[in-house]
Description:
By secondary structure, the protein is of the alpha/beta class. The chain folds into three domains: 8-136, Alpha-helical ferredoxin (Fumarate Reductase Iron-sulfur Protein, Chain B, domain 2); 151-247 and 406-471, FAD/NAD(P)-binding domain (3-Layer(bba) Sandwich), CATH 3.50.50; 251-403, FAD/NAD(P)-binding domain. The chain has helices at 8-11, 24-27, 40-48, 57-60, 68-76, 80-88, 94-100, 122-136, 159-170, 187-190, 199-212, 228-232, 265-274, 301-312, 333-341, 410-413, 445-448, 453-471, and strands at 151-155, 174-178, 215-217, 239-242, 248-249, 262-264, 293-297, 317-322, 345-348, 350-357, 363-376, 382-386, 392-395, 398-401, 405-406, 440-442. The protein has a five-stranded parallel beta sheet with strand order 3-2-1-4-16. A five-stranded parallel beta sheet has the order 6-14-7-8-9. Helix 3 (40-48) packs across helix 5 (68-76) and helix 5 (68-76) packs across helix 8.
Amino acid sequence: MSENKLPPRERMKIPRQHMPEQPPEERRANFSEVNRGLTVLGATTEALRCLECAKPQCEHGCPVNVNIREFVRLVEQGDYLAAAAKIREDNVLPAITGRVCPQESQCEGCCVLGKKFEPLGIGYLERFVADYERAHGQVGLPEKAPPTGKRVAIVGSGPAGLSAAGDLVRWGHAATVFEALHEVGGVLLYGIPEFRLPKDIVRDEVNVLRQMGVEFQTNVVIGKTVTIDELLTEERYDAVLIATGAGLPKFLDVAGEHLNGVYSANEFLTRVNLMKAHDPSHDQPVFDCRGRDVAVVGGGNTAMDAVRTACRLGARTAYLIYRRSEKEMPARAEEARHAKDEGIVFLCLTNPVAFRGDPQGRLEAVRCIKMELGEPDASGRRAPVPVPGSEFDLPAQMAVIALGTGANPLVQSTTPDLQTNRKGYIAADPETLRTSKRGVFAAGDIVTGSATVILAMAAGRKAARSIDDYLHEAPAPLP
């Protein structure tokens, strides 16, 4: 394989390629994808910037350990299908992670170019080759081992479950993914808006897994339709992976949260994504935002998704209320920039203390208080402290609470010998992801709490490896 012929000094002179975007004045009124993707020329030029480090630090920053140097080299050579196939050896969802991964704090954050220049656009290149592969209908399916005769049940079709399923079928095991909703994809499908992650992308990646041999069953609520014990006994699965995510909404626990017009981000985004609230041909299954003021509480990516969604649904003014300063926001910088470009009003160092309604029980204002940053808290960030006497009312007819999620207790409550921690998350060995119940493993947000898509995928891969080891141990037959 030939090397990049440009010397490092010349490569470093090449500027990072710009990601084409839909103009803000257009995109704020539609749900089409904001980022448009690199052109062939843009991708090849960006790949030329790679310094081809002997010990690529970017790969250490990737939670699923994609062979970044090799896939970028293939892009530079113009072999885009081979580059996509190289990524799929470690990442079964490249078109998704190329769009939603926080590369700036992972692979790109470790790129040596970033010490003096802008880092290599690894996420841009990953998205490019995945989209190229999809457009040409030539997906590079990885090789599969001979069938082992072992069957694994995977509970949840989010990133952890999908990633684990992809590895398990490659190693010859039969993997069945159970999804409670009517369509496969988990948080990728119902939690991330169309303008950031088109649902056809998710469906296509799921179909690749189908081609690899993964079986999917929808409308199956584990804990109701069938229990974990029944999967192991009556259904005769050899192992079970619980990858249900953390889908229990958190609230402020302040007066007025019961008012009509106050949503959790989970409910709001799920209704928009799965019930097509953005499509005029469908009945509107959410509170009508048109011509109204909408307040979204939170500072993470989910809050950004919700407030930008409200904007697209016709909000007169869309506010983002965050109790710390913008510098402390956990949301990706790109998402914050996109939101501002679209006219979202940021109210930082502000915190809701109550919701106020009219006599009919409809929200009409959010009672807020100004905050200032005090001493660092347990997370290391400066703790927000209320400013006495700074209360004010923000007119709003709809509010969305995006403060994170907790563990849904359904699976745990119907599996008595499955240990949990004090917060209700499933207790799993950090190295093997084995739970207290023999043959049962757990991975992703149901173990760690809310995290990123790629970290959930990494946990799914770790669980798959541990399950593979377990299945080769020839354990005693399950009852």
